[in-house]
Amino acid sequence: MARCTAPVNGHRTASGAANCPACGGRGRYRSYDYTPSYSYSSSSRSSTSSSGGSGGGRSARNRRASWSPAGSSVYYTPNEIRELAPVRENIVKRAAIPDVRDVFLCHAWDDRKGAAKDLCDHLESNGVSVWFSEKDILLGQPFLREIDKGLAKSRVGIVLVTPSFLKRIKNAGVSEKELSALLARDMLVPIIHETTYDALRNVSPLLGSRNGLDTSEDPIERVAVRLADLVKIEEPVCR
């Protein structure tokens, strides 16, 4: 007796049923011949891939990343793991650079004593070494040259996106130079603060397409914890 091939051909179309040796002679398509084991609609896919932040209809954070240290309290969505994996690979590759910092903090000048300093402080309290222009560029040093050196000696860049930062990008300020260098490689994580991804996409669609963190969903203290989970590399244990 011929067997139904629904698990193989699907019977989701009339031609699928017609090609089945068991069902082909029945002369009609029966939708209940096929019972999918999973569903993945195009609408859910677009809402997942197009959203830059960690919310906005995305699936729950319930997965541990392979790079997370034992005992980590940080969880990710599948999309976050997929998009952050190339960033993590670059972090690991650049770990061999002498005197490398964990993070290069790109920010607007107006945020240097406010949100940028707060984020820097929270990162350092979580054991992350930060290149921060407010501390690393001394009086009299060439500003652009020191930024180049900071970028070269950092594992990954984080961009603090604020209303002031968006204004700087529009006016082609120094932040744009830093941003261009970071966007050229998979070493960039945007941090949205007191603005939105939509506002960022209006100014920089490329940066707005990157997966990042949003302080409207995670307070800046928690953002620092999540970044530490991504950038820190555990030293091998000598036996």
Descriptive overview:
The protein is α/β, with parallel strands linked by helices and 239 residues long. It has two domains: 1-38, no CATH class; 42-231, Toll/interleukin-1 receptor homology (TIR) domain (Rossmann fold). The protein is 42% helix and 10% strand. It contains twelve helices and five strands. It has a five-stranded parallel sheet with strand order 2-1-3-4-5, with helices on both faces. Strand 1 (101-106), helix 5 (115-125) and strand 2 (130-131) form a beta-alpha-beta unit. Helix 5 (115-125) packs across helix 12 (220-231). The longest helix has 16 residues, at 78-93.
Task: Give the topology.
Layout: H1 6-9, H2 14-18, H3 42-50, H4 78-93, E1 101-106, H5 115-125, E2 130-131, H6 133-136, H7 143-152, E3 154-161, H8 163-170, H9 174-183, E4 188-192, H10 197-203, H11 205-208, E5 213-214, H12 220-231
Parallel strand pairs: 1-2, 1-3, 3-4, 4-5
Helix content: 40-55%
Shape: globular
Helix/strand order: HHHHEHEHHEHHEHHEH
The CATH architecture term of the largest domain is 3-Layer(aba) Sandwich
Beta strand count:
5
Rg over CA atoms, rounded to whole Å, is 24 Å
Main sheet attributes: strand count, strand direction, barrel closure: 5 strands, parallel
Mean pLDDT: 76
Could you name the CATH topology of the largest domain?
A: Rossmann fold
First CA to last CA: what distance? 64 Å
* Biggest sheet: strand arrangement: 2-1-3-4-5
List unreliable stretches of 5+ residues.
5-18, 25-57
> CATH superfamily of the largest domain, called what?
Toll/interleukin-1 receptor homology (TIR) domain
Approximately what portion of the residues adopt beta-strand conformation?
5-15%
Number of helices: 12
Oligomer: single chain
Number of folding domains? 2
Overall SS class: alpha/beta
Overall CATH class of the largest domain:
Alpha Beta
